[in-house]
Design goal:
alpha+beta; five-stranded mixed β-sheet; 43% helix
Length: 294
Amino acid sequence: MASLSELITDKTPIITLKNDSHVSLATKEKVLGSDNYSLSKKDDYLKMMYIMNNTWYYFKKEEENASYPMYLFDELMGSYMASLLSLKSLEFLIAQTKHEIGLASKNFRNNNCTYHFGNFLHETSEKEHGISLGRDIGNLDALRILCNNTDNTLQLIDEFIRLLVVDSYMLQTDRGPANIQFAVDNETKETHLGTIYDFSNCKDEVASWGIYLKNCIVIVEELGMPLLIRECPEYLEYVSLLIDHGFASSWDKICDNYCFNKETRSYEEVKKYYKVKENKQKDYFRKFIKKASI
């Protein structure tokens, strides 16, 4: 298995995490979010939380993961891909605790916004309009009920399409309620997607029966792709942009950013993995791009 530890050099910035003595479980729960009852893995998230010098961090340790062996590298890659589409995404730090090494990210929540997890759209629709939403493309238009003006609606829809594109290219299979947050500006009352995080459940290729990506707002699936592309022509434009950048060259840029050692087995293993995935994704999306150009 490719190892993050093997890539680290003496030039790689590393922080050491340890909790301040006063931190309590109740404090962590408050920081995690007032509606954290929706988080099925809340206890796991609480264990990942560290506070140092009044700054909260979330830590994902390096460990063997048979289902998603590239999960830490996918975190780095997913955030990098999101930034290419101008989506706010986590900025990871290489971090170590007393016994472990992994990735840490600062808590992105701030006091200027009120945050809601991904089920916010469905709850608002049922509570204020008496409508139960599914998970289809129509939910993009339904995002307007979270917005206070037309411009905000168009912005939020575009942000969400960009998220669908990043997840489609990365093959993120678990964009559930815990992995999406809406940020409502306390002053303007505008709603936007919060910082994007969690790319640890990415597949290496589209299944033989086609694409199927779980998402608590809009499920991306093979049979629905023609409608998604027809309703959102910018979807393929954004996909093409990511294809042009590619995984392999992006991996090199990530390694440069973190001063990783490119003379290692792990570097080559990860590079090979992303090159193969890149070619498969090109082949998969080529049929849709070709059809749209006719």
